[in-house]
Specification:
419 residues; alpha/beta; Rossmann fold; Helicase, Ruva Protein, domain 3; Zinc Finger, Delta Prime, domain 3; 4 domains; 5-stranded parallel β-sheet; 5 strands; extended
C-alpha cells in the first residue's frame, strides 16, 4: 500500500515533524476524542475508520492524529492539500478509490485545510462518500458549520480539537527531551510551555531555534527571550476565534463582569482587532441588554464610537475600557428588545390591522381624534390600533422602574376615562 507520510532525511526534518507521534502512546491531549473511551481511538483500534473532520486551533494534534491513523490502517491512503489541490487531483483520487473498491481495498482520502475547497470541490466529494467508495479524513482550523457545505457535513462526523493543555504540552516536551540531545532549565521549560499557548508545533519550533542559539549547552529563558519576547496571541480577525472572542466580550458585559470583559477587550486590542468593530457591538449591546434601565448607555456608547473614530489607536483603548466598565456595571434590561421581537412576530403571523379612520393623515373622521395635549397630564385614553395588543413588559431595574410606574399610572387614567 502507498504511504502518504513519507519522511525526508531526519537531518532536514523540522523538530516538530521529527517528533510527530508514531502511535497512540505518544499522542498527548484531546482525551475526549482519543482517551480510553474516545470514539477515534476505537476507530483506530478496530481498524474501522469512519469519514470525519478534525477541526480546531493550530498545533492541537489534528494532522498528527491523522498520521497515526495513516500508519495503523490497512487502507490505501491518498493525501491532498486543499490549498494546492485541483479538481483534477480530486477526480484522480476518487478514480483510484473506485478501482480499489473493485479489488476489496479500502481507501482513505486525507485532506489538509479542507475549508479551502470551494463549493464545487466539496460537492465533488459527495458521490464517493455516499457510495462508500472512499473514507474522508479532513483537517481544518475553521469551524465546519461555517466553512463546509451542509451536504458534506451530513456525511461525516465532526470532532472538535481544543488547545493543548499545560499537562499535554509538558508531556510532549518531556518526550522531546527523551528522544533528542536537549537539556532545558526548569524555568525555561515553564517559560516555553506558557509561551506555546496550547500550540505544540509552536513550542517545538521555538525549542529547535533555542537549541541552535544556546551557547552553554543548556537552554535557558534568555535563549527564548532572544528569539521571541512577546507572548503568542491566538487571535485572527479573519478566523472563527474572532467571533468567539467578541461573543465572550459581549456576554461578559451582559453578565456584569467588568474584569472578564476587560480581558477579552485586551485580547482583541492586542490581537489587532478593528476598534470600531468593537465600538459598534457596544452600541448594539447598550440598547439590547441595558436598554431602558439606563438609556444614557446608548448615548455614551455612540459617543465612545465617535471618540474612538476621532482619536484612533493606541489611545482609543482607554475609551473602549471606559465604556466597557460603565456598561458592565449598569442595570440590565432587554424589555425593548423583547418588545420589538414580539411585535415583529405578531406582524408576521397575524392579519395586518387597518389604521383607524381618525388616525389617518387625511380623513373626514379626523375630527374624532383626541389631541392628548388638550387633556390633563397630556393624556387621554384612545384606541390606536383597533385591537387589544401588548408587547412591552417593563422591567424592575434602574430607570425602567420609573417607566413602569408611569405606564401603570397611564393605564389607571385610561381605566377611569373609559368608566
Amino acid at each position: 500500500m502507498s504511504n502518504l507520510f513519507q519522511n525526508s532525511s531526519e537531518k532536514d526534518e523540522p523538530l516538530a515533524k521529527k517528533l510527530s507521534p508514531k502511535s497512540m502512546d505518544e499522542f498527548f491531549g484531546q482525551d475526549k476524542i482519543v482517551g480510553e473511551d474516545g470514539a477515534v481511538r476505537q476507530f483506530i483500534l478496530k481498524d474501522k475508520v469512519i469519514s470525519c473532520i478534525f477541526y480546531g486551533p493550530p498545533g492541537s494534534g489534528k494532522t498528527a492524529l491523522a498520521r497515526i491513523i495513516a500508519r495503523v490502517t490497512e487502507s490505501d491512503l491518498i493525501r491532498l492539500n486543499a490549498v494546492t489541490a485541483r479538481v483534477e487531483d480530486l477526480r484522480t483520487a476518487l478514480k483510484r478509490a473506485s478501482q480499489n473498491k473493485l479489488t476489496g481495498i479500502n481507501t482513505i482520502l486525507f485532506i489538509d485545510e479542507i475549508h479551502r475547497f470551494n463549493k464545487m470541490q466539496q460537492d465533488g466529494l459527495l458521490p464517493g462518500l455516499e457510495e462508500g467508495t472512499v473514507t474522508l479524513i479532513g483537517t481544518t482550523t475553521k469551524n465546519p458549520f461555517f466553512s463546509l457545505i451542509p451536504p458534506l457535513r451530513s456525511r461525516v462526523l465532526l470532532f472538535e480539537f481544543e488547545k493543548l493543555s499545560y499537562d499535554a504540552l509538558k508531556n510532549i516536551l518531556a518526550n522531546a527531551e527523551k528522544k533528542e540531545p536537549i537539556k532545558i532549565e526548569k524555568s525555561a521549560r515553564e517559560y516555553l510551555i506558557n509561551f506555546a499557548n496550547g500550540d505544540a508545533r509552536r513550542m517545538l519550533n521555538l525549542l529547535e531555534a533555542a537549541a541552535i542559539v544556546s551557547e552553554k549547552g543548556e537552554i535557558t529563558v534568555d535563549c527564548f527571550e532572544r528569539l521571541a519576547r512577546k507572548q503568542s496571541i491566538l487571535y485572527d480577525r479573519d478566523e472563527d476565534y474572532h467571533y468567539d472572542v467578541i461573543s465572550a466580550f459581549i456576554k461578559s458585559i451582559r453578565g456584569s463582569d467588568p474584569d472578564a470583559a476587560l480581558y477579552w477587550l485586551a485580547l482583541m486590542i492586542e490581537g489587532g482587532e478593528d476598534p470600531l468593530f468593537i465600538s459598534r457591538r457596544l452600541i448594539i449591546l447598550a440598547s439590547e441588554d441595558i436598554g431602558l434601565a439606563d438609556s444614557l448607555s446608548l448615548i455614551l456608547a455612540q459617543a465612545a464610537y465617535e471618540a474612538v473614530d476621532n482619536i484612533g489607536m493606541p489611545e482609543a483603548r482607554i475609551i473602549l475600557s471606559h465604556i466597557t466598565v460603565y456598561l458592565s456595571l449598569q442595570p440590565k434590561s432587554n424589555s425593548s428588545y423583547q418588545a420589538i421581537e414580539k411585535a415583529a412576530e405578531y406582524v408576521k403571523t397575524h392579519e395586518t390591522l387597518d389604521v383607524p379612520a381618525y388616525l389617518k393623515s387625511s380623513h373626514p373622521a379626523n375630527k374624532f381624534y383626541k389631541y392628548p395635549h388638550d387633556f390633563k397630564y397630556h393624556f387621554t385614553p384612545q384606541d390606536y390600533t383597533g385591537k387589544q395588543i401588548q408587547f412591552y413588559e417593563p422591567g424592575e431595574l434602574g430607570y425602567e422602574k420609573e417607566l413602569k410606574k408611569r405606564l401603570a399610572f397611564l393605564k389607571q387614567l385610561g381605566s377611569k376615562g373609559k368608566s
